[in-house]
Design brief:
489 residues; alpha+beta; 7-stranded mixed β-sheet
């Protein structure tokens, strides 16, 4: 009978073990009450297995979608880079989301295993709600992340503040852990992020200075190779032209059914922006520009620019000429408050460029055009176009514009009626270039390269005379490019 009672006691202990082992949060590391069983070995094994199960199961952390700024409350999940069961580390890309302003790649703050994806592709994710569930190493991640040398413990928030020697340092827990693993004090690192936030790149750069490691050069610091000779350049251009694939016409699929889908991303942003634009009383002004001299100048500079890795179009000249005009007519680079009581004159010329993409109309802007050369503007436009094509433009590229140009002529059309993008007060649409007969100063008919420009302005604060004078000045810079040399700094 004693043997039977001992066996029953052992069975009850095994049942208890199974129930407790199924709970990932149970952590019985030390018995608080002695177990009165007839199997001492089972009691020790019981404790050991509970400890092991707790560590293996880990802790489930709900990774919430944090605030990405600009008042955005929801985003569309465009692509998942992980699936359930995948192992992720800090800084690994989890997914790409798109708001009505930009596309953002979300990265992991934890090391662990993805246990649940809360959304499917094209679903709408809400800021502050769980995005994924990650199972982390319980003993590693439950411990407070801290710089044991000089900092207090920090919480698992997306952006944490920390008092160090009388001032605050801003960094994510992942960045703090990277600093701790390399024995770096955050107070000695200069943050390059918003509000002085310390980024991963800042830690790596600081570490490189301390160890003498050589990091890959940034695009701005790359050494420009000497330009190839003319014959080599022509051969490269021919090879490049031959390698460009011929675009195929997308086959038409007729289903015979109506399709209804919600507005998302940039299309949703267009609805908001154009609805606000209807409140602005527009007036239009049109003119034509003789581009003959500028066409020749661009032809002379094109090969030199391409040798430096930058494609030179006419748009950098349009943008720079607009900035020079805004210097003389700053009211076109202003904004009007909602109550129409105050005008704010913008110091920076952040000139937007309308782009047609597969995701819809986007308008990134070139920052501080007034302080950039034409070559620098061309390089920045190349960057924006590359990111826009792949849908990788950030919120910083798409916000803060003060004036806009739209090169509708790159697709077709001579004149347009552009709509102002609030809170801006003016916009220009450039038509396609045409070879047309015109009279020269001697009254002779000559071949001229002509484009048409269509301006729209906010008639509440801008009158027709101001718009006309600005347009004439912009036109003079393009028809006589050498005049821009007098204004360039």
């Amino acid at each position: 009978m004693a043997a039977v009672r001992a066996l029953r006691s052992c069975n009850r202990s095994l049942v208890c073990l199974r129930q407790l082992g199924s709970c990932s949060r149970v952590r019985l590391l030390k018995a608080s009450v002695p177990h009165k069983t007839h199997c001492g070995l089972l009691q020790q094994t019981h404790h050991r297995l509970l400890r092991t199960t707790s560590v293996l199961n880990g802790q489930i952390v709900q990774f919430k979608l944090s605030d990405i700024g600009e008042g955005i409350t929801e985003v569309t999940v465009k692509d998942w880079y992980v699936k359930e069961g995948d192992t992720v580390s800090q800084f690994d890309s989890i997914c790409e989301v798109q708001s009505d302003k930009a596309s953002v790649t979300i990265t992991s703050r934890y090391d662990g295993v993805v246990r649940k994806l809360h959304y499917n592709v094209d679903d709408t994710a809400l800021v502050g709600k769980p995005l994924v569930d990650i199972e982390t190493d319980a003993l590693k991640d439950v411990a407070p992340e801290e710089d044991v040398v000089e900092t207090p413990a920090v919480s698992h928030e997306e952006h944490t503040h920390q008092e160090i020697k009388g001032h605050k340092t801003l960094a994510t827990p992942a960045v703090r852990r990277l600093a701790m693993e390399n024995n770096i004090k955050l107070s000695e690192v200069v943050g390059s992020g918003k509000d002085g936030r310390i980024l991963k790149e800042d830690i790596l750069g600081f570490l490189a200075k301390q160890t003498g490691a050589i990091l890959p050069p940034s695009p701005q610091m790359e050494i420009t190779p000497p330009p190839p000779n003319l014959e080599t350049l022509r051969q490269l251009q021919r090879d490049k032209a031959a390698s460009i694939p011929v675009p195929l016409v997308k086959p038409i699929v007729f289903t015979g059914k109506d399709v209804t889908e919600p507005l998302k991303g940039f299309h949703k942003a267009m609805v908001k922006t154009m609805s606000a634009a209807l409140k602005i009383p527009h007036f239009g002004y049109c003119d034509e520009v003789d581009m003959t001299n500028l066409v020749q100048l661009r032809k002379d500079l094109k090969s030199m620019s391409e040798a430096r890795g930058v494609r030179l179009s006419f748009m950098p000249f349009f943008v720079k000429a607009a900035s020079l005009g805004l210097m003389q007519f700053p009211i076109l680079n202003s904004s009007l408050d909602e109550n129409c009581q105050n005008i704010t004159y913008k110091a920076a010329h952040n000139i937007g460029i309308a782009m047609d993409t597969t995701q819809g109309l986007i308008v990134p802007n070139v920052k501080n055009v007034q302080a950039r050369s034409i070559f620098e503007i061309a390089a920045e436009i190349n960057r924006l176009q590359s990111l826009g094509t792949t849908g990788q433009l950030g919120a910083g590229d798409l916000t803060g514009g003060t004036f806009t140009l739209s090169n509708i002529g790159s697709i077709g059309g001579t004149y347009a009626k552009p709509v102002i993008l609030p809170p801006e007060v003016a916009i220009g649409a450039i038509g396609k270039m045409q070879v047309l007969p015109r009279f020269d100063s001697n009254g002779q008919v000559v071949k001229a390269q002509i484009i048409n420009i269509s301006w729209s302005a906010d008639h509440r604060i801008i009158d027709g005379a101001t718009m006309s004078r600005f347009s004439n000045l912009w036109k003079s810079y393009l028809e006589n490019p050498s005049l821009m040399l007098l204004e360039l700094k």
